[in-house]
Write a structure and sequence with these properties.
alpha+beta; 3 helices; globular; Acetyltransferase (GNAT) family protein
């Protein structure tokens, strides 16, 4: 977990599929990136995605999803980031 003054960033947890489903299928929130009707993914699809993220035991995964939460009341914000990690040799 990474903490700032007002937010912290955490890894996905079981139950986050509800948030991801609501956020990513919200047509109003996705208009700016060209998804007029959201991502059109089922809750089950998001559940499997969260489960895969949690079960991944790679020390340096190719990508990792995180959720920003308000520090004052621990509520997740409508922001997820999907980081791609590059390792230089």
């Amino acid at each position: 977990m990474i903490e700032g003054d007002k937010v912290f960033i955490r890894q996905l947890e079981l139950g986050d599929e509800e948030l991801l489903h609501r956020w990513r299928n919200n047509s109003q929130g996705n208009l700016y990136c060209g998804f007029k009707y959201g991502f059109l993914m089922s809750k089950e699809s998001f559940r499997l995605q969260v489960e895969t993220e949690i079960k991944n035991e790679d020390v340096f995964p190719a990508k990792k999803m995180f959720i920003f939460c308000k520090k004052e009341d621990l509520t997740p914000k409508q922001i997820t980031i999907n980081l791609k990690i590059y390792i230089k040799n």
